[in-house]
Amino acid sequence: MSLPFTSPLDPRLDELWENRSELGPGDAAARGIVVAAVNALDRGEARAAFVDGGGEVVVDERAKRAILLAFRVLGLSRAQVGDFHYNDRIPLKSHLDGVRVVPGAIARWGSYLGRGVVLMPSFVNIGAYVGDGTMVDTWATVGSCAQVGQNVHLSGGVGVGGVLEPPSAVPVVIEDEAFVGSRSMVVEGARVRTGAKLGAGTILTRTTRVFDVETGEELPRGEVPAWSVCVSGTRVRSFPGGDFGMPCVLVLRRLTEGEPLDRLALNDLLREHGVSG
Ligand SMILES: CC(C)(COP(=O)(O)OP(=O)(O)OC[C@H]1O[C@@H](n2cnc3c(N)ncnc32)[C@H](O)[C@@H]1OP(=O)(O)O)[C@@H](O)C(=O)NCCC(=O)NCCS
């Protein structure tokens, strides 16, 4: 059974949340509390959500509140990169030790990037957590508060959905050693369990139906099992107007724990970036 969770973040955030309609960029005290909380997310000392020892996803509502409050207590600020001009409340992430960030990649303050992460030109939003050794390939987007584990590969154009409101909403969780094929979408609190390999173009939402093709069994919706190879499929559903194919995810086969898929062997040279700082 999971133990009750106590957020490591300042409990005064709850009070600020209750009074959020009265807050604005002029509230220096509130801003100090909120900035400290988002800094803790930025450094990985707090997380918007995590998988506990019992395998349950635990959401830190206080972390989500801190992020939402940041949009109230931070003023708009102008920034410029070359000819590009910006006007935003959330600055870019500046704490990039041990991470390779390729030009064109954008990580916002309040996202955490573990050691050895490679960001190709991609986007990582506030509150997202990207574990050690993970590759975020070109045009992949990691939404606010999404939780991505260690040694994950998010292929080109993958969309990992974000969720901020309501604060209790469970974010997308992609666990260690998972592979998400090109242009896949994992959204709305869907979950890719440890070592799962999702084929290119797979769409997984919280209500996507998932079937094991070996057994015919329907598995829990919105998640793909650990150490499995999955692709998008269709199932036939009868409507008053006829029978139509509806999307689903098919578990093609199971892998043994830790088993690599040769076809997905990635070029280690591209991931090895020698950043030791
Ligand atoms: C899912 C995947 C890993 C499966 O590879 P595999 O185990 O070698 O399986 P196969 O290619 O033999 O495909 C098995 C079946 O699934 C189908 N299939 C394969 N990939 C599929 C996909 N993405 N979506 C739907 N069906 C797919 C094949 O047509 C095949 O059907 P069949 O048995 O009726 O002929 C692979 O197809 C894939 O999508 N890789 C991701 C590629 C990618 O995104 N790379 C990123 C660049 S680094």
From TrEMBL:
Gene3D superfamilies: Hexapeptide repeat proteins, Tetrahydrodipicolinate-N-succinyltransferase, N-terminal domain. InterPro entries: Hexapep, Hexapep_transf_CS, THP_succinylTrfase_dom1, THP_succinylTrfase_N_sf, Trimer_LpxA-like_sf. Its EC number is 2.3.1.117. Keywords: Acyltransferase, Repeat, Transferase. It holds the Pfam family THDPS_N_2. Residues 11-73 form the Tetrahydrodipicolinate-N-succinyltransferase chain A domain. GO terms for molecular function: 2,3,4,5-tetrahydropyridine-2,6-dicarboxylate N-succinyltransferase activity. SUPFAM superfamilies: Trimeric LpxA-like enzymes. CDD domains: LbH_THP_succinylT. Belongs to the transferase hexapeptide repeat family. This is 2,3,4,5-tetrahydropyridine-2,6-dicarboxylate N-succinyltransferase. It comes from Bailinhaonella thermotolerans.
